[in-house]
Amino acid sequence: MNRHLISAGDLSRDDAILILDTAEELASVEGRAIRKLPTLRGLTVVNLFYEDSTRTRTSFEAAAKRLSADVINFSAKGSSVAKGESLKDTALTLEAMGADAVVIRHQASGAPRRLTNWVSGRVINAGDGTHEHPTQALLDAFTMRQRLSGPGAGASGVGPADGPASGADRRGQGLDGIRVTIVGDVLHSRVARSNVLLLSTLGAQVTLVAPPTLMPHAVETWPCRASYDLDAELRKSDVVMMLRVQQERMTAAYFPTVREYRRRYGLDAGRMALLPEHAIVMHPGPMNRGVEIAAEVADSSRSTIVAQVANGVTVRMAVLYLMLGGAAEETS
Ligand code: CP
Predict the structure, then answer these.
(1) What is the pLDDT of residues 163-174, one digit of tens each?
(2) pLDDT by residue (tens digit) across 210-268?
(3) What is the distance between the alpha carbons of residues 281 and 64, in angstroms, rounded to a whole number?
(4) Closest residue by CA, ligand 1 atom 4
(5) Per 3-state DSSP, what percentage of the chain is helix, strand, and coil (rounded to 5)?
(6) Ligand 1 in contact with 56 (CB < 6 A)?
(7) How far does the centroid of ligand 1 lie from the alpha carbon of residue 194, in Å?
(8) Best substitution site from 56, 124, 309 to test ligand 1's pocket, by max atoms within 8 Å of Cβ?
(9) What pLDDT does residue 236 have?
């Protein structure tokens, strides 16, 4: 694995499967009375968040603490960033405090890559602008593998399942042949970009569906298909991943009205019925209920939204464990 985790495209298939398999291993800690391992004792993980987050920040914090690391939470709001301090000077300050890993979320695409020039510890991208969110893609892949591998899986070992496979059965598997449809505001979505890169590395067939105004211009260079016909794609999907409409990043009118967007690209119960029986519904959160996803869909038994959050902790434990050199130690 690379020294830093900036892009899902940095991960080879073997790297990605190692992370997913390690997360399976670490998930067993969740069932214990004491959910803590000594693996990262004495190491310091800094959560450096310049942009709002609920899931990613708390799950990196929980992951680091479950591995016994010391955690420093740094939020731009209420810090010297408000007085004009640059990312470089903040990074040098954290470096002086001995950060072994810096988990960074920033509104500017490319900020995590810049940070690698200024700190000696590992840098993990927790979402940068409209660029990437690699650990979200990893937890999404973990959730797909968990839900879609099982006794009914195809020859590849992964496919529509009759029932959940045990963690041991899933180990070593990618997502070969799984059909994933990612729907919505692809243009502004770092989650979509990271998922396309990671899922294609793992052998999945990815299709992006968006209004023409919210489809990236160079999408033909991405390792996926693009389509404007959501209903046709749903009928042949194993996974549908709904994306948040990111109104805070929109600088123009990308669709006429929310009602029109919902009618063409929203997932309601009627549309969900077009999916094959085994298919699952995903959303990275936070959701706009009633816009890209109806409440009845988000709360349905096909929805993996809560499982994705839970899996985020174990997948991030695996990333920290592998990147901070814990692999040489015992996990039990
Ligand atoms: N999915 C995700 O990144 O959520 P947060 O913005 O809450 O971290």
Answers:
(1) 556 777 889 999
(2) 999 999 999 999 999 999 999 999 999 999 999 999 877 767 678 888 899 999 999 99
(3) 29
(4) 55
(5) 40, 15, 45
(6) yes
(7) 14
(8) 56
(9) 97
Helix (H) or strand (E) holding 64: helix 55-66
| DSSP assignment of 209-232 | E--GGGS-TTGGGSSSEEES-HHH
Distance 286 CA to ligand 1 centre (A): 6
Shortest CA distance to 46 belongs to which of 114, 86, 97, 115? Answer: 97
Question: For residue 17, which of 145, 114, 134, 103 has the smallest C-alpha distance?
Answer: 145
Helices 134-148 and 190-201: angle between axes, nearest 10 degrees:
50
Ligand 1 atom nearest to CA at 126: 3
Strand partners, 209: 183, 227
For ligand 1, atom 5: residue with the closest CA: 53
Question: What is the reported pLDDT for 151?
Answer: 53
Cβ pair 190, 5 in contact under 8 A: no
Q: Which of ligand 1's atoms lies nearest the C-alpha of 285?
A: 1
